[in-house]
Design a protein that fits this description.
The protein is mainly alpha-helical. The protein contains 19 helices and 2 strands. Strands 1-2 form a two-stranded antiparallel ribbon. The chain is globular.
């Protein structure tokens, strides 16, 4: 009996090995996708001659546009991992833009940044009180916060920016006076070296130089902070006991409560952090993008952030890729107009064709046929035109949002208790 027990292997080791193998396969798949995307973009650039497609300027602009979307998506991830749907991200971003613009012009942009975060936290706490304490439907509460934030900031702007010192400094009912800039920086030596390689337009080499150059040129300190927050979120939620308890509240709060987890506390903390991150995204728009608070400044980025979070399957890595994609499409239409977006049509043809082949291989006949037909139609559009109409160019980010969500919908897995009402002791 003793020998048998001694020779029996522990049951945990095979599971750990299997988990490590799955992580290794996932990392390998991500690297293959990134490499394939880089080759595809390089080929499209060479074929179409659209050298701005992955230039350092394009990537730098895309990064700047992706940061507020990514922070909004990260805010949604924190909230929904704890089981609270946060449709109010747009309103919390609006509060962040106002708080940062209001304090930023009166004192310093650093205090404005903190105030933007604080205003977002305030919006998050209101949402937590409504949904966690009083059990209000999460969607209803989020929509109400969006409406209240818009009305409150419009009223406060008329109150603080119309008369006196603010009016003399350039304020009016729709915008604040300008604030000082937060510091930007380049990586010394590396930016210039990559720029010289990019100018040769070599296949793949110049494309890689342009992408890396955009990631190390004219960086804002808030961009660096956003990267740290993404990495920190991954580590905190997936590598610590705190993160395990918080995610358990979004999967099965009754079971979490039975194990001694204070579900209300974790939900409140998650939604407050969610509001702060959304407020930081709004502050980025006020202090980095334009240096002023401007009415309507968020432009629906809170909703696009939610779409990026869903695309990323409620995980930081996928969310970052989704935010980068939306930022890239937005920068493409803002910087280059219809000519470069026209080159993007060829890229879309290839992606749809690959999707059609994959669906047909997986025996999903109708989906494969529809994807193939769409690829053929987009190819005809590309061949018979030289430039995409301006109205469609302006809608590019939203078209990309719908397309990405439609293509990724089948592999999604949201937290099981996301959006459900919870009452302490309801499992007894």
């Amino acid at each position: 009996m003793t020998a048998t027990m001694t020779d029996t292997p522990p049951p945990v080791a095979p599971k750990a090995d299997a988990a490590a193998k799955r992580q290794g396969r996932s990392l390998g798949q991500i690297l293959m996708i990134v490499a394939g995307a880089l080759l595809l973009v390089a080929a499209v650039r060479v074929i179409t001659g659209a050298n701005q497609l992955d230039s350092a300027g394009q990537i730098s602009a895309a990064l700047g546009l992706a940061v507020p979307i990514g922070l909004a998506g990260l805010a949604g991830l924190w909230s929904e991992r704890a089981g609270v749907v946060n449709i109010g991200l747009e309103g919390m971003m609006i509060l962040g833009t106002f708080g940062a613009g209001w304090i930023g012009w009166q004192s310093s942009p650093w205090l404005g940044l903190l105030c933007g975060i604080g205003f977002g936290v305030l919006g998050g706490l209101v949402h937590a009180v409504a949904t966690v304490t009083f059990g209000v439907d999460h969607i209803v509460s989020g929509v109400a916060i969006n409406l209240l934030a818009l009305g409150a900031t419009q009223y406060l702007a008329k109150l603080f920016f119309v008369d006196g010192k603010a009016a003399d400094a350039g304020g009016n009912p729709k915008q604040s006076p300008p604030s000082d800039s937060l510091p930007n920086f380049d990586v010394p030596g590396l930016s210039d070296a990559l720029q010289s390689v990019e100018k040769h337009h070599w296949f793949l080499v110049s494309d890689l130089a342009g992408i890396l150059g955009g990631l190390v040129t004219n960086l804002s300190v808030v961009t660096i902070l956003a990267v740290v927050l993404f990495v920190g979120t991954w580590w905190l939620l997936w590598r610590t006991p705190f993160g395990l308890r918080l995610r358990s509240c979004g999967e099965n709060p009754i079971a979490a409560e039975s194990l001694g987890v204070n579900v209300y506390t974790y939900k409140y903390a998650a939604v407050a952090i969610s509001g702060g991150l959304a407020g930081l995204g709004g502050a980025f728009l006020s202090l980095v993008t334009s240096h002023i608070y401007l009415e309507g400044q968020t432009g629906g980025r809170g909703y696009i952030g939610l779409a990026a979070m869903i695309f990323g399957n409620w995980r930081p890595g996928g969310l970052a890729m989704g935010a980068g994609l939306f930022g890239f499409s937005d920068a493409l239409q803002l910087r280059n107009g219809g000519v470069t977006v026209h080159a993007l049509l060829l890229l879309l043809v290839v992606l749809l064709a690959v999707l059609a082949g994959w669906k047909l291989y997986r025996k999903a006949l109708w989906q494969g046929v529809i994807s193939a037909v769409m690829a053929a139609l987009v190819l005809v559009w590309y061949l018979v035109t030289d430039e995409v109409p301006g109205d469609f160019v302006g809608a590019t980010p939203y078209v990309v949002t719908l397309l990405v969500l439609s293509l990724s919908a089948q592999r999604l897995r949201m937290p099981k208790a996301d959006g459900m009402r919870y009452r302490k002791g309801q499992g007894k």
